[in-house]
Amino acid sequence: MKFGTSGLRGLSEDLKGRASALYATAFGRHLLDGGLARPGDAIFIARDFRDSSPEISANCVDALTALGFKVGDCGTLPTPALALYGLQQNAASLMVTGSHIPADRNGIKFYRPDGEIDKDDEAAITAAAAVLDEGGFSYAPSQAAAVNRASECLSLFARRNAALLGPDALRGLKVGIYQHSTVARDLLVEILQGFGATVVPFGRSQSFIPVDTEAVSQDTIAILKAAARDHGLDAIVSADGDGDRPLVSDETGQPLRGDLLGLIAANFLGASVVVTPVTSNSGIEASGSFKTVRTRVGSPFVIAGMQDAIAAGDGGVVGFEANGGTLTASEFSLGGACLQALPTRDCFLPILATLLVAASKKKPLSAIAADYRLPFATADRLENFPVETSARLMAYLRASPENLSSFLQPIGEVAGISDIDGLRVTLKDKSIVHFRPSGNAPEMRCYVEAASETAASALLDAGLGRIRQWANTN
Is 167 part of a structural domain of the chain? Predict the structure, then answer.
């Protein structure tokens, strides 16, 4: 088991057993020992649609009940819905989800009563789990009962989203909803219909389909393009498995980059400060009247950056990641209504903000995206890429300028380097190639920017090709 960029991750088979109870117990003890909760307090749990999630969830319920918590079961719903409910109830929560990674893996996201855990919490939970493990922690399923809180949890989140736009704000738009296996699929239909959009749901699946909104697969793009063509859609929306990362495609079915969606949401809210990882598009700084803060990849780092901004006296603080998940650290006023801060990734805010721009400007989303004039950017990953090989590659690239120059020689000359998270290299032609091991899966990621879509695609292919070549010869 290992904490990555967002939560604990591991093999589904492992988490279905002792491991999930071990880490749930470690989390519960961390809350109790740190004075963040007391025996008898409420704690909430929800899950995604993976086959392994109900069993993992039941293990966590048993473990937390044994510690004296009153567990509320919020069912299958989006992670931001669970997080918002926990904040309102001043209660901790756990989301059983592997987000976008394959179904043979799963994970748990942990929330304190005041929001998402940070890196210090992760270290403390890991240490507590190690102590329990060394002490011979044993677990036998007890099938403890949990109080059903699904309806009120989902209703709270639905009301939040219903207040984001004005009545009939999306009337005139025909929007496809790629439902696959995301827990956001039914709520997306309800919310968009409530704003007057004509909705076309499609692609609903009974088995889990991993959808990575930061590196959309060619198979997924083909599905989106076919739906756009067959139904005459103005846009298609979807989300990852647990509904905290948005997917929006234009009228042709071509996905918009997640960082563009976050940027549109920041401008919609009138943000004064934007906190975003180094992997987000380099054109963001020039695309609004806000101050931009760059961080490492992962919601804990974005949240820490937002907290620093709030501590410095800044207001209007928004964060987003390259996957489009958008966070708010400040309250915002929208049409006289107050939007409560929700400092965890949310797919609904950027989806609604983007569709509103299309409806209000009466322009196709492809034209709206082009108006931002961001550098062309794309990303992909090599799956089933051993973590040890990723570590050796990154060590080699960092060992000397000569190593990096030699590695990139077939691609271009190095002009500048950022080592905030992975290696982000600016080439002399001003294009960018960024190598970064995934923080939560055996994957090697490559992000690129270039002057044209064709150049970006070629640069991505070249970057991934160099990684494969190095791995095969070292």
Answer: no
Which has the higher per-residue pLDDT, 140 or 245? 245
Q: Is the pLDDT of residue 440 over 70?
A: no
Q: Which two tokens stand for residue 461?
A: 């292919």
pLDDT for res 288: 86
Dump the DSSP string for 443-462: -EEEEEEESSHHHHHHHHHH
User: Residue 430 sits in which domain range?
Assistant: 376-473
Kindly report the average pLDDT of the chain as a whole number: 94
Residue 299 lies in a domain: yes
Which pLDDT belongs to residue 209?
Answer: 93
> Is 9 in contact with 15 (CB distance < 8 Å)?
no
Give the CATH number, domain containing residue 130: 3.40.120.10
Cβ neighbours, 10 Å, residue 385:
20
Put residue 139 in one of left, alpha, beta given phi > 0 → left and psi -120 to 50 → alpha. beta
How many domains would you assign to the chain? 3
Same domain? 33 vs 99: yes
- If you search the block for the tokens 């095969």, which residue do you land on? 472
**Domain-embedded: residue 165:** no
Burial 242-272, CB ≥16 within 10 A → b, else e: bbbbbbbbbbebbbbbbbbbbbbbbbbbebb
* pLDDT for the residue numbered 228: 98
- Which residues sit opposite 112 in a β-bridge? 115
155-204 pLDDT, tens digit per residue, is: 999 999 999 999 999 999 999 999 999 999 999 999 999 999 999 999 99
Domain boundary among 371, 403, 430: 371
For the segment 216-245, what is each residue's pLDDT rounded down to a tens digit? Answer: 899 999 999 999 999 999 999 999 999 999
Burial of 338 (0-12, 13-18, 19+ CB in 10 A): exposed
- Which of 336, 371, 406 is the last residue in one of the domains? 371
Q: Quick one: 288 and 384 in the same domain?
A: no
Is 99 known to be catalytic? yes
Q: Which residue type does 395 have?
A: A
**Can you tell me which residue has the tokens 């470690």?**
26
pLDDT digits (tens, 9 = 90+) for 383-409: 899 999 999 999 999 999 999 999 999
**Strands (E) located in 217-370:** 235-239, 246-249, 273-277, 291-295, 317-320, 326-328, 332-334, 337-339, 342-346
Residues 194 and 283 in one domain: yes
**Three-class DSSP category at 465:** helix
* Same domain (yes/no): 188, 285: yes
Residues 48, 79: one domain?
Answer: yes
Distance CA 351, CA 289 (A): 21
Q: Is residue 241 domain-shared with residue 291, that is, in the same domain?
A: yes
Catalytic entry in 12, 20, 99, 431: 99
Q: How far apart are CA 451 and CA 372, in angstroms?
A: 14
The one-letter amino acid code at 50 reads R
Q: Are residues 367 and 380 in the same domain?
A: no
